[in-house]
Amino acid sequence: MALAKSSTTRPTMVYSLVVSFLVLAIMCSTLPSCHASNEVKCKPLDPCDDAGCKTICAGTGMPFASPFCKETHPPLCCCIG
């Protein structure tokens, strides 16, 4: 509240707030951590096992592997990154 009791005018405070929100919005729109940037790629996996799926995903540079052995036909390995 020190800003409100100083000699700063109300339009100056409003302008400062608008500029700070604008800067925050620009920063968030340019940083990848602000976006849900999950990409999913699925490949057929035969034989379907967890180790084989992890190997496929590690080879593509995607950190998370999810094998769908019984749920899909043909069995799939989905990599999430």
Automatic annotation (TrEMBL):
Keyword tags: Signal
Protein's recorded name: Uncharacterized protein
Record's superkingdom? Answer: Eukaryota
User: Which source organism?
Assistant: Triticum urartu (Red wild einkorn)
Signal peptide extent? 1-36
